[in-house]
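User: Hi! I have a protein structure encoded as tokens and I'd like to know what sequence might fold into it. I'm fairly new to this, so please keep things simple.
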């Protein structure tokens, strides 16, 4: 996976006709699987992990419970009574509350001799069963699809396994983080009474756990203004704000970046935003579209730029040696955007 290097080029002479451009830069640094997702979970206080480490059963259960029920709720859990607890999870164990609550809700079951083995490495199949059960789909699976393949099938259809392939028997924390970020975006299951029995219903209009539990919503758009400059001269923002234009509707929205100041460096880039749905619309997490191709160019090296229906032409002054420079021509397809 390649890191993206951001670059913004401003052309007052052609702003009326061209809006943003990006070219490719190769970068040899490779991120571990789930490194971005690990950082995302850290922002939400769900887990503080290192992507390449193996994840234990206790760590995964605690993170799942935080995803589905929220940090404050999980932190208020108390260990269960002696008759309803795992014998190898003492009251003073760091995740005793979340493990006990997961057991009470039948999200986890342990072994026949009331052991949970919390420090054991988590297997892929166990992670899938825990994740599907935590979001309330165990009964749906058992009612409609059966064990065990129904869990994997349901996890795939819910998008919980999106972005995961070639996984070993035990999960890394990076792989687990990918699964948990997907889990946060699962639609909450509805129930209804039919002939005096409960029926489980999947409704695409339902909110996600990210929406309901964490009050976080997503937004896709192009960053059009920061405190320094604006693509549209009518956009004026403060030092702790950015303006983002919705890629679908074209409407612009103002977001608070006081807790995510790096967002101001994404001017002109298509991004996905996770924000708190409050008066400030605080950005919790913002990431550039992975399909963008971006390059760094010194602003004072731009000589000229023009656009036709089919392509964009730019001329860049490039230094050959200490004394000489030459003009380099680059041709880009017209679907690129130029700021």
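Assistant: Happy to help. Inverse folding works backwards from shape to sequence: for each of the 339 positions I chose a residue that suits the local structure. Here it is:
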């Amino acid at each position: 996976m390649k890191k993206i290097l951001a670059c913004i080029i401003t052309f007052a002479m052609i702003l009326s006709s061209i809006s943003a451009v990006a070219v490719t830069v190769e970068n040899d640094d490779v991120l571990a699987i789930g490194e971005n997702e690990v950082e995302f979970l850290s922002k939400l206080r769900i887990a503080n992990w290192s992507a390449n480490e193996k994840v234990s059963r206790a760590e995964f259960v605690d993170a799942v419970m935080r995803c589905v029920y929220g940090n404050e709720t999980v932190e208020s859990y108390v260990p269960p009574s002696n008759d309803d607890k795992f014998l190898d999870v003492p009251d003073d164990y760091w995740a005793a509350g979340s493990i006990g609550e997961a057991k009470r809700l039948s999200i986890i079951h342990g072994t026949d001799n009331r052991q949970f083995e919390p420090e054991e490495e988590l297997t892929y199949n166990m992670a899938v069963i825990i994740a599907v059960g935590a979001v309330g789909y165990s009964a749906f699976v058992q009612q409609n699809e059966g064990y065990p393949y129904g869990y994997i099938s349901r996890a795939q259809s819910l998008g919980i396994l999106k972005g995961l392939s070639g996984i070993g028997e035990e999960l890394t924390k990076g792989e687990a983080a990918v699964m948990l970020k997907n889990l946060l975006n699962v639609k909450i299951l509805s129930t209804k009474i039919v002939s005096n029995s409960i029926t489980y219903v999947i409704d695409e209009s339902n909110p996600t756990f990210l929406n309901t539990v964490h009050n976080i919503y997503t937004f896709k758009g192009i960053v059009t203004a920061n405190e320094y400059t604006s693509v549209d001269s009518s956009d004026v923002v403060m030092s702790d704000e950015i303006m983002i234009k919705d890629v679908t509707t074209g409407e612009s929205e103002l977001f608070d970046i006081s807790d995510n100041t790096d967002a101001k460096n994404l001017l002109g880039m298509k991004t996905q935003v996770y924000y708190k749905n409050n008066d400030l619309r605080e950005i919790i997490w913002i990431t550039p579209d992975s399909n963008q191709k971006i390059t760094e160019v010194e602003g004072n090296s731009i000589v000229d730029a023009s656009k036709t229906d089919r392509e964009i032409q730019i001329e860049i002054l490039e230094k050959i040696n200490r004394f000489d420079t030459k003009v380099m021509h680059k041709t880009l397809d017209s679907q690129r955007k130029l700021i």
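A useful reference point when you look it over: The first strand starts at residue 190 and ends at 194. Feel free to ask if any position seems puzzling.
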